[in-house]
Fold this sequence. Notes:
Chain A is mainly α. Helices cover about 70% and strands about 0% of the residues of chain A. Chain A has helices at about 10-35, 40-55, 70-80, 80-100, 105-130, 135-170, 185-215, 230-250, 250-255, 265-270, 275-285, 300-340, and strands at about 60, 65. By secondary structure, chain B is mainly α. In chain B, α3 packs antiparallel against α7 (about 150-175), α4 runs parallel beside α7 (about 150-175) and α8 runs antiparallel to α9 (about 195-225). Chain B is flat, with a radius of gyration of 25 Å.
Amino acid sequence: MHIPDGYLSPQTCAVMGAVMLPVWWASAKKVQNTINKKYVPLMALGAAFSFVIMMYNVPIPDGTTAHAVGGSLLAIIFGPWAATLCITIALAIQALLFGDGGILAFGANCFNMAFVLPFTSYFIYQLLTKNSEITSAKRYIAGFIAGYIGIVLAAICAGIELGLQPLLFHTAAGVPLYCPYPLNLAVPAMAFAHLTVAGPVEGVVTALAIKYLQISNPEMLSIEKINAPSKAFSYVKLWIGMAIVAVLTPLGLLASGSAWGEWGVDELKEKIGFVPEGLEQMSDKWHALMQDYGIPGFDQSFFQSAIGYITAAIVGIILISIVTYLFGKILKGKDEGIHETK
Amino acid sequence: MCQKSLKFKLKKSKKPTFLEKTINELNNVIKEEFIAGKIASRHGLLQNLDPRINIIATLLLIITANFIHQPLVLLFFNFWIIWLAKVSLVPIRSFLKRVWLIVPLFTVVMVIPTIFSPFLPGEPLLILFQLSHPIQILFWQIPPIISITKQGVMAAVVLVLRVGICVSLSLLLTLTTKWSQLLKALNKIGIPTVFITILEMAHRYIYLLLQTTVDMFIAKKSRTVGQTTTGEQRQFISNSMSILLGKTYFISNEVYSAMTSRGYNGKALTLAEFKLKLFDWLWLGFIIIVCLFFIGGDYLFVWK
Amino acid sequence: MFGNNVVFKLKDVSFRYPSNEEALSKINLEIKKGELSVLLGANGCGKSTLLKILDALIFPQEGEFYAFEKLITEEALADEEFFYSFRRRVGFLFQESDVQLFNPTVWDEVAYGPLQLGLNSSSVRERVERTLENLNMKHLKDRPPFRLSGGERKKEAIASILSIDPEVLLLDEPTNGLDPRTQRHLINLIKDFHKQNKTVVISTHNLDLVYELADKVYVFSEDHKIIACGTSEEILDNKELLIKVNLIDEHFHKHVHTGDHLHFHSHE
């Protein structure tokens, strides 16, 4: 899933990098506050582990092999923040030393594999194994599901990043300047490849590893974790709620007319007979990134418009959530900092 | 994006087992770094630079490449990079192989569908089929005229050329800078010391874990008689991952003890010093001019 | 309470691992400045754990440990000044070299100790050059540890400790896995260090080391206690004791060669 340079526009790379900056900062703070001085060697070894795991060739039924990321396993054992740091470092070494994954695209790759993957896996695993024994079968089945969904979601994010390119960056004649596949091809393609191959690989590998640890080294499954907020469960409810809302947004399209107060210049003229001068000047100046909450060039049929709506909703929710969540973390961190004893 | 499996599909010889594949790849990692170290010690042009300048220049060039869209300019950029490699005493044939036969080749394969109109609508260059009406499959509509389009070919060419540039530039950077110097330079540019320490340590212990893994795999290989099912193989892989995870945790605790024993108290400290020479400033100036030249060329050769 | 020049003193020290496994049971010993002591015992008897306690890397649950006449606890080491002064005075050689070679190159590794302990850059550089020179390692200074042989890595590990210029050296199974030449080199190094009136504590099950180096020998039983203490002659002559603690088998005997040295063997 490593995206090389050239596929994503520099603007996209910059945005993804900006999104990751607070995540990295928060993960460094969180890890340091929890395990303090020990975190340097632990993160270094975790990153080395992550790197080596990504090199394993896992045999799959058709006779070839595929690669796992190991991010789910790391998140389940050491907690999501630690996994973020470790995978980021591993990706950095891969990009710098081995040319695997671009340098400009580093932010995007980290977002997908070092943020979405471990956090999703961690939450799903926690949700499914809330009160079960360390050695119960629930644990490794949960591991499978967590790994599977984690990597599929990460792949979908990559697909969205790639698929947005031709829509946002093309010449007047319609030549895509970066990745040429639009959302309706990139997302299903990435999703399909990972639903059928990489997903099961990550899931199976995570599950088997947990199963093995249950027998040989059960202490590993309960070592001190660098946890996400303790109210993880209520957060999940929130996410589910937002997802439902996101899916239902196209229903708005069915209602004819525009929402009160959100009229365009033409509609306003129709309604009251004239258009205030300032409004006319401003309306052209700011073309929203996703004009009319759709994806430019992609709103022919209702179905396509719906996809556009949902994508816009998802992107909007994700960005807002991230910023909100991290502001919360920073403020919480400030409080903890004051009370911290050395 | 499974480039690695693709590489093996191209081999006509007997298919290696998953153990052999992994062992090969792991050994290649060690070999590659050894070769890179040798090239970084030569007295070529780029090796002569302060590593910080090399990093900044490379970044500027990669960013510039991503703002250029004319195939001719991109092509010329690629040739200029080959000149850079030559002047830095990098063996050209293996450089080209290493650059073009992995990511760009994979890109070519990946981007071939784009040149056809069902994937990217556009002006036809070569009409292949004509259907009576468009066909709809799920999210995807196939147009009645199936052709190779101008836009498709352009998109494909531009992408492949650009990817080639980016890969060449980053490879050139790592070949002409010693890894330890590269990390210390990143530190001096602004990346926090703590991250650099973790990066250095992670890199160093990759080799230990690789060796452990290779040993486990070779031991397994020597004990394997006949075929194993893919299920058994996956079981083995997961077991070795778990063992590796346990060893990882154990080693990290020992390393922490060793660090503490020699005075580590939570502070990340470094001793590296770099001095900028006139040559570094001249080179940076030259690179800025080159970037402007390419961007200018992009405007001039506008191809619609 | 402290006699002359007592460097380390342990009173009824016991240690358990977090998994509740017992590692040491009521250990009492006193190590004086300039002594070369050997902790002798079979694998798993707790001698490595004891060395870690001596280096204040872990802390006993029962009993008291005094170093340089000060009671050593986690709180004591939380004081920065004492932390640095302790770390400067004691050096620890780990059994597996790889865990203490965590820097990118040999030069960085040897510089790490002096740097962490607060020396300024020029002093650090000078120390590193000197240490590498003394150990004949200058040609290796830019190598990463994974491109060194086992013997070279051992040397690098030793160099990384000697650059701190400690008063006390703690060595955990130093000759394990070494080829004869490297082993000989290491023994000579330890002898040199000892001649400078520095304190050395070695944990091992290698009887050759006892004969060649030890002033004092502490014998550990397999149930984590010290059951004997004496000079190397006393201990090595006590065949019964050595069999009891599983250091030798019944066929053990000494060879006496013309010249100065003895060899200790077991035969099938």
